């Protein structure tokens, strides 16, 4: 029998498989599960258990930002599919839940 805590988690947790690597994406704010207003700007933590990850990455998700508020690119009209303009796979996975959100890696080099 599954315990009530597993059926209804108290904190948001996602098990991810991105680019063939498994990881855990989780938040420490339980309001993300029940209050849509908590989804404006919030933090998620990413852990993949690989040797190259020295510590859990803290990501800041902003769901009300706009693409024109992001840091300017060298070529503003460049094709977003080109290698120089691509986004990390984990950011794209996060955007399947929060479309259009900006993701800040807070100084950590994106490893996905």
TrEMBL record:
Keyword check for Cell cycle:
no
Please give the residue ranges the record annotates as the region Disordered. 65-89
Pfam family of this protein, just one? MINDY-3_4_CD
Annotated ranges, domain Deubiquitinating enzyme MINDY-3/4 conserved: 2-107
Please give the InterPro entries that the UniProt record associates with this protein: MINDY-3/4_CD, MINY3/4
- Report the family membership: Belongs to the MINDY deubiquitinase family. FAM188 subfamily.
Q: This chain belongs to which protein, by name?
A: Ubiquitin carboxyl-terminal hydrolase MINDY
What species was this sequence derived from? Aramus guarauna
Q: What gene name is listed for this protein?
A: Mindy4b_0
């Amino acid at each position: 029998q599954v315990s009530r805590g597993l059926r209804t988690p108290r904190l948001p947790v996602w098990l991810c498989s991105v680019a063939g690597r498994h990881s855990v994406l989780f938040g420490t704010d339980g309001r993300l599960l029940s209050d849509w207003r908590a989804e404006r700007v919030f933090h998620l933590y990413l852990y993949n258990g690989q040797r190259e990850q020295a510590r859990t990455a803290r990501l800041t998700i902003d769901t009300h930002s706009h693409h024109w508020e992001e840091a300017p690119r060298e070529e503003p009209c460049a094709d977003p599919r080109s290698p120089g303009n691509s986004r990390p796979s984990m950011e794209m996975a996060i955007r399947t839940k929060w479309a259009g959100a900006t993701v800040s890696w807070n100084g950590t080099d994106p490893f996905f």
